[in-house]
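Morning, I've got a small favour to ask if you have a moment. It would help a lot if you went through both lines with me. Thanks so much in advance, here it is.

***
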Amino acid sequence: MEKSTSEGRRRRTRIALPVAAAAVAAVAAVVFTRVAGAAPAVPEPTLTPPGYTTLASGELERRVAGALDAAPSPSPSARSTTTGSTAPWLAQLWYHDDRGTAARTDDVSFFCTGTVVAPTKILTAAHCVKGYNWYAYGAVVTGTTDLPTPGTRGADLHGGTASLPLRQFYDPAYNADTFDNDIAVLTLDAPVRATPIRLTTATDTAAYAPGTAARTFGWGHTRTATLPIRPDADCARQQDFVPGHMVCTGDTGRAEPGAPLVVGDRVVGVAAADGRFLEVRHYLGPVRARIDDSNFSRDHRADVFVRRSEDDMGYFKASKGSTLDNRDEAGNWGAAELVLQTDLDRDGFEDLLWRRADDGAVFLAHYAPSAKTWRTTELPGDWASRTRLVAPGDVTGDDLPDLLSVDSAGVLWIHPGNGDGTFAAQVKVGPGWNRYDSVVGHGDFSGDGKADLITRSEDDHHLYLHPGTGTAGPDAFAPRIEVRTWPDYDLLDAVGDVNGDSRADLLARDHGGTLWLYKGTGKASPEIFATRVPAAPDFDQYDLLG
């Protein structure tokens, strides 16, 4: 901490959140006072993230046309298969690999259905994804109620838009013989205009209660059908039916592969290859982790932002799974005392939310890929009185990332995200958060698909999990769970899923400068983290991580 005692000079206090434990007692009661005079320059990121992939003109339409010509289902003659007002979030997944030969006998072409659950995320079935290279041979069509037909550019999409799948994920426990865990997520290269549909919640029991009327949607003969939920016992005679993993509808074979099962305005199931539906609430952990997996390098592993103390230069260090890659320079960040990564608008490009050290003002740096530049705006609000800022993801259960803050009295507040980089009115959670020397979180640590917090008590260094409940207000977090006694690390940080296994991880720096990676296990118990592994040496040269 630096503090000027000269009258008329600005008081400068730098808090690197998550902060060093030794500094917390001193900064817990600190608030920032805005004074007259020119404010320090606003840092502008100088590193350009990977942009949208450039394909040859008409390439995606040609992929659709190839699949349309070869795939046996759905029938290309089926038109007006859905109603835009009924299922605007329904997607067409077309795959065509001609194997580089003129012969058609070795072509791999097929069609699946998907569901837009975020601007760049398509929920579908694992059997539509595993073993296929969607980036090289796939196309996702949204924004139309019709199936494509042959056209001058390869395929007429009838007002729809073809998008490139940037990366793919399927549940690692997927069983191709039984279709258990048959669920997957495709990440698109750019956001689509189609309005996403929300996922069910982990505590949703009404949607799965026998007698509930559910609907499935498709593009071929199914189009739409109402399927009543039945007791699991009614499906027990079906081979390979797995209670808790699958939804019993008593009617298999009618749904298209990857098609959604919807109750009300939420997706509760995904159709496996044999028409049975996977129970989405059981898979919220891995699915939501993929929805909230934007990072600077645009792969599926969270990266780390650091600032070198000797010259205030910022860097991004990309994750290689268990270790961090060489750093990429990101400009001078001397004016900042905090940098957080969070994709507030779900556009697939990580935003940087940072606070200025001199006056506590908070800014959002958002990358605009169309202009290939960063745009920075100041966020309104009384941020100078806040001793903590955390960007854990969606806390309130509306599928939009939120922001948390702790005020000087130790009260935790939720700033609900609006999905466009702005926030709704703050919501009070409760007091007592100044007892912790570290409050961090980015993603789901307990495996239930809800954003959680990790804290460390100041007096005894016990580590606690605060499970998120998916609600806004005093009950936003369940009672804390002590998970272990923690070593005397001088800094903790949470940036998300560092190793790419769909579980939130924790980073910790020891007093020797080694950064350790604690891989999450998804268990809300003392086994919440696997045995630590060294992620990078010489991290004592950095005074800020985010």
The CA atoms of residues 323 and 535 lie 4 Å apart. The first strand starts at residue 90 and ends at 97.
